[in-house]
């Protein structure tokens, strides 16, 4: 699949995680930024992010998504770029699941268990980059939400605060779907899917998003005891967690 002509636009689901309560205080600003797709931001947004201290981008999208959109204006800046796909094939990410909040929670569990090495690398990048690290997928909801949850767990945030951060995306979903529609529509069509059928199968604009994240956190503890156990088994060290907490604590 080749790249397509993109209309550049500002993210509609970008937020600094600063201010969230963590063990020992609150997460300071300028450490971790979660966002929807950075591949087609405007030149002005790219410039503002770099001027604001952005030093690393963690791209959680699949190889196919990266092939479609490339890196965009941020690719012209001397900042670190890390492609860490949490789903190898986005067209098969929902196999066996329906597009419901409960189904998303089950998909998130598989993501943590199967992509634990990528999540560990991402946490190390956030821990050691000298400035802010921004991480994104397409919508800044699912894959981005999973990494945000793992980061907040490592920092000692409580479940309610993790769920609250995740749920904030709900108010942006209409704008997200509008922004990503050209790219995602092109991709689904190229993969042989009926775009209208994909849209119709989703009930993610209904009900509370909190269900998905609470389901993930509950399932991780039921299956592993420690919610971070899959990441610890994949190499997440106490040193990395200590470094994250050192960087994250507001002083």
Short description:
This protein is α/β, with parallel strands linked by helices and 251 residues long. It is built from 11 helices and 7 strands.
Characteristics:
single chain, 251 residues, alpha/beta, five-stranded mixed beta sheet, two-stranded antiparallel sheet, 7 strands, 47% helix, 10% strand, globular
What order do the helices and strands follow? Answer: EEEEHEHEHHEHHHHHHH
Supply Rg. 17 Å
Mean pLDDT: 89
- Cα(first) to Cα(last) distance is 48 Å
Number of helices: 11
- Going across the major beta sheet, what is the strand order? 1-4-7-5-6
The structural class is: alpha/beta
Strand content: 5-15%
- As a percent range, the share of helical residues equals 40-55%
Q: Ranges with pLDDT <50 over ≥5 residues?
A: none
Largest sheet: 5 strands, mixed
**Number of DSSP strands?**
7
| C-alpha geometry | globular
If you had to describe this structure to a student in words, what would you say it looks like?
With 251 residues, the protein is an alpha/beta fold. Helix content is 47%, strand content 10%. The chain has helices spanning 43-51, 63-69, 101-114, 116-128, 143-154, 159-167, 173-190, 195-200, 210-224, 229-233, 238-248; strands spanning 15-16, 21-22, 25-26, 32-35, 54-59, 80-83, 132-136. The strands form 2 sheets. Strands 1-4-7-5-6 form a 5-stranded mixed sheet. The protein has a two-stranded antiparallel sheet with strand order 2-3. Helix 4 (116-128) crosses helix 11 and helix 5 runs antiparallel to helix 6. The radius of gyration is 17 Å and the shape is globular. The protein starts with 14 loop residues before the first strand and ends with a helix.
């Amino acid at each position: 699949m080749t790249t397509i002509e993109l209309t550049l636009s500002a993210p509609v689901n970008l937020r600094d995680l600063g201010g969230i309560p963590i063990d020992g205080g609150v997460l300071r600003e300028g450490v971790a930024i979660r966002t929807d797709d950075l591949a087609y931001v405007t030149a002005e947004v790219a410039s503002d992010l770099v001027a604001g201290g952005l030093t690393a981008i963690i791209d959680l999208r699949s190889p196919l998504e990266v092939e479609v959109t490339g890196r965009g204006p941020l690719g012209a800046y001397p900042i670190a770029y890390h492609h860490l796909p949490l789903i190898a094939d986005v067209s098969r990410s929902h196999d066996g699941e329906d597009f419901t909040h409960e189904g998303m929670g089950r998909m998130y569990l598989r993501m943590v268990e199967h992509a634990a090495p990528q999540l560990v690398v991402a946490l190390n990048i956030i821990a050691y980059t000298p400035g802010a690290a921004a991480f994104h997928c397409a919508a800044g909801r699912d894959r981005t939400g999973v990494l945000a949850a793992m980061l907040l767990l490592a920092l000692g945030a409580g479940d309610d605060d993790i769920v609250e951060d995740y749920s904030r995306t709900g108010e942006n979903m209409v704008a997200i779907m509008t922004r990503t529609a050209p790219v995602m529509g092109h991709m689904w069509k190229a993969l042989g899917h009926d775009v209208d059928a994909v849209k119709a199968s989703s009930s993610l604009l209904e009900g509370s998003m909190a269900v998905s994240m609470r389901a993930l956190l509950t399932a991780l503890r039921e299956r592993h005891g420690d919610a971070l156990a899959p990441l610890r088994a994949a190499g997440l060290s106490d040193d990395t967690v200590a470094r994250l907490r050192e960087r994250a604590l507001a002083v």
